[in-house]
Write a structure and sequence with these properties.
The protein is an alpha+beta fold. The chain is built from 3 helices and 6 strands, in the order αββββββαα. Strand 3 and strand 4 form a beta hairpin.
Length: 167
């Protein structure tokens, strides 16, 4: 293999890797943007209160456009219990005071009913393990890995351009 053939081979590999990663990043960004515009919010499940339905580490997708009045017994909903804490539990009954909820693995109902003021939306589906993976990006090692991936992507683009200019 000549030097020029080796450069072309390396160039082809860089080109493929760069295009796959770039396409994946852009596709994911567009998809998340569309979900956001449609009122879907993503929440990372951090406790086992919902058991196998929403295991620890999954990412649940919550439709914030589902009206409070349309919630029925058995629906899984998300709500705020404080400024920085959200809970996703099953509606076990509807009362005049609000929606009474309970985690599937809990023995008792939640202490306060969900009202229109603290209601977020209805859970429409969940992806296992995705929350754990994305949650790891909020840690210092996760941020370092993400920054390193961005640097590698940018450097591979620069190297790819230089290789193409030389050939």
């Amino acid at each position: 293999m000549t030097k020029q053939q080796a450069v072309k081979a390396v160039s082809s590999v860089f080109n493929l890797i760069y295009r796959v990663i770039s396409t994946a990043v852009v596709t994911l960004a567009v998809l998340l943007g569309i979900l956001y515009l449609c009122g879907i919010r993503l929440y990372h499940v951090k406790s086992g209160s919902m058991g196998e339905l929403l295991p620890v580490g999954c990412m649940c997708f919550v439709n914030t456009k589902t009206p409070y009045d349309s919630i029925r017994t058995g629906d899984v909903i998300s709500f705020r219990v404080s400024e920085d804490m959200r809970v996703t539990h099953r509606a076990v009954r509807i009362t005049e005071d609000g929606i009474v909820t309970r985690g599937d693995e809990n023995d008792t109902e939640d202490p306060d009913p969900v009202t229109q003021e603290n209601y977020i939306g209805k859970t429409v589906f969940a992806l296992p393990y995705v929350g754990r993976m994305l949650g790891g990006l909020h840690t210092l090692p996760g941020k370092i890995m993400l920054a390193a991936a961005v640097v590698v992507l940018l450097l591979s683009g620069i190297v790819y351009r230089r290789i193409n200019e030389e050939s």
